[in-house]
Amino acid sequence: MPEALVLDADAVLWSAERSAVGGRHLLLLLHGYGADEHDLYPLRQYLPDAFVVASLAAPLAPPWPAPGRSWYPIDGFEGADASHVTRAAQAVIAWIDAHAAGAASVGLLGFSQGGAVSLQAMRLEPQRFAYAVNLSGYATPGELPGDAELAERRPPVFWGRGTNDDVIPGFVVAHTTQWLPEHADLSGRVYPGLTHSVSEQELGDVAAFLDKRLTALDTVD
């Protein structure tokens, strides 16, 4: 059995003191391949202030000369082992157990690889996560034991992608297009002309989605 991945707790960028997470809504940022914890952290200026934001660093170093970090190897989507995505998601859950167990709620916002890991974590523990934002990412093909429960819970998921994104293969996009509405309360939008990136328009949509999540969470509380 492969050794469990461990996230570097000291690399996490927090929008507030770590001790402030207790009883507050936590939003985790999961960057894409070749980036690091600094990549998505500036997005916090577009997000509701009520969240404590924690930007995580992926556990792996991609092959030289690629910079940054990675959540799992990318040796080609067709031959990729879905267990690599699962190991990364398990590492995120273990980090939450160790450093954010007292949060009032936990949401996930991931880009590309980070988006895939976000959905995978939600599939592993559907009761753990209040929602997910998947930017230019996808749902990993294959089945997980938590999928049935996820389909019953139907947590809110925002999925945004661009028409000119040539990084994520078409068959994975097609799979995600079918899979997400079956397992989540999907808010999806395709942005004309957008490449494998994030636009101002998309960030506005994400902020509106998160505002709705806050309203719903505070109503439940």
TrEMBL record:
Keywords of this entry: Hydrolase
Transmembrane parts of this sequence: none
All copies of domain Phospholipase/carboxylesterase/thioesterase, residue ranges: 24-212
Source taxon at top rank: Bacteria
Keyword Hydrolase: yes
Single GO molecular function: hydrolase activity
Database matches in Pfam families: Abhydrolase_2 (PF02230)
Family, per entry: Belongs to the AB hydrolase superfamily. AB hydrolase 2 family.
Protein name according to UniProt: Alpha/beta hydrolase-fold protein
Organism of origin: Microbacterium psychrotolerans
Upper taxonomic lineage: Bacteria, Bacillati, Actinomycetota, Actinomycetes, Micrococcales
